[in-house]
Design goal:
By secondary structure, the protein is of the alpha+beta class. The chain has one domain: 4-Layer Sandwich (Chorismate synthase, AroC fold), CATH 3.60.150. Helices cover about 35% and strands about 20% of the residues. The protein has 13 helices and 17 strands. The chain is globular, with a radius of gyration of 22 Å.
């Protein structure tokens, strides 16, 4: 079983990740983590911070000579801009020179300020910020390294930004397409809808506005039977939905053809089964690779909908928490659109869920034990 914690604020000294439960022997490199962090900074419509932030990192524990030890993996990702924020974000006694007292609609500001009894939104927004996902990216990298050892790989892509969408029946990308997708300014597969998405972002920028969208994550090679039907918190689709919903600004998750099949008769909504002489297979994959809380051996396919970023350059109406007078919400440097980056983060969270469920099912304190257990189970599936 895996579990992770992250700590740190958006403009603090850095972000800390601790990931526990990895078996020993998984290849881990500083360069590999850095490459994943660089992917998270991708995307047309990102703000100036992405050009400033270098994500300098240090592996603090859990790795020796390029492989996990079986002890907790600990990594710190330092914030390049920390020198500019040392006084405002100091851990020493003091107070802010410019408290933020006009909470933004759509952000964690007001609910967090009331909950934690503060009159400065920075006490909330610094942790609520999507900058925290840099720490999760470390987790996703390590989990993908584990998944690769048993032939499981993931890929993500953007399917909509605003009202600009990819073709509904377009072919699905595979992990081999990742580099091509990452080259796209909006991480659209095969350039499908790319021009319209860029135009939508440009229009939003000119209008001093922000845009949301939808991304899709696909996982290949997951064997049948990962997850379980026996308890609500063991269901694979529930775990995937929870992980994706935990990403900042995500407001909806769909597994497979979720919303479409809700309007489809049962005779056309399910995936018929056949046997190819060695294994059971499906004619279609409307279920998105999951039935009854368990993987079915097909591609796992999930989508997540991201709302527009709540820091709008045309501030919305709000109330000053001190004076109780109507004012405009404060503004901070922000992105116009972060959907391409959110897709990469979604990829990391799906990797974490799948790695955790595979570890739950197959166990192993060492990578060799884990790989052998998966291989034995794959033989059982063929022999069944």
């Amino acid at each position: 079983m895996l579990r992770f914690l992250t700590a740190g604020e958006s403009h603090g000294p850095g972000l800390v990740t601790i990931l526990e439960g990895l078996p020993s022997g998984i290849p881990i490199s500083r360069e590999g983590i850095a490459a994943e962090l660089a992917r998270r900074r991708l995307g047309y419509g990102r703000g100036r911070r992405m050009t400033l932030e270098k994500d300098e990192l240090e592996i603090m524990g859990g790795v020796r000579f390029g492989k996990t030890l079986g002890s907790p993996l600990a990594v710190i990702v330092r914030n390049t801009e920390w020198p500019r924020w040392q006084q405002e974000m100091s851990a020493e006694p003091g107070e802010s020179r410019r408290p933020l007292q006009t909470p933004r609609p759509g952000h964690a500001d007001l609910a967090g300020m009331i909950k934690y009894d503060t009159r400065d939104a920075k006490d909330i927004l610094e942790r609520a910020s999507a900058r925290e996902t840099a720490a999760r990216t470390v987790v996703g990298y390590a989990c993908k390294q584990l998944l690769k050892t048993v032939g499981n790989e993931l890929v993500s892509h953007v399917v909509a930004i605003g009202d600009a969408e990819t073709t509904a029946d377009a072919a699905l990308p595979t992990p081999a397409d990742q580099d091509v997708i990452d080259v796209s300014p909006v991480r659209a597969f095969g350039g499908d809808g790319e021009e319209a998405m860029v135009a939508a972002i440009e229009a939003a920028k000119a209008d001093r506005n922000t845009l949301g969208g939808v991304f899709e994550v696909l996982a290949y090679g997951i064997p049948i039977g990962v997850g379980s039907h026996v308890h609500w918190d063991r269901r694979l689709d529930a775990a995937l939905a929870s992980a994706l919903m935990s990403i900042q600004a995500i407001k909806g998750v769909e597994v497979g053809d979720g919303y479409d099949v809700a309007a489809t008769p049962g005779s056309r909504a399910h995936d018929e089964i056949y046997h190819d002489g060695s294994e059971f297979n499906r004619v279609t994959n409307r279920a998105g690779g999951v039935e009854g809380g368990m993987s079915i051996g097909d591609v796992i396919r999930v989508r997540a909908a991201m709302k527009p970023i709540s820091t709008v350059m045309r501030p919305l109406d709000t109330v000053n928490v001190v004076t109780k007078e109507a004012e405009k919400a404060f503004r901070e440097r922000s992105d116009v659109c972060a959907v391409p980056a959110a897709a990469v983060v979604g990829e990391q969270m799906v990797a974490y869920v799948l790695a955790n469920e595979l570890q739950r099912k197959f166990g192993g304190d060492s990578l060799a034990e884990f790989v052998d257990s998966v291989a034995a189970y794959r033989k059982h599936v063929v022999d069944y």
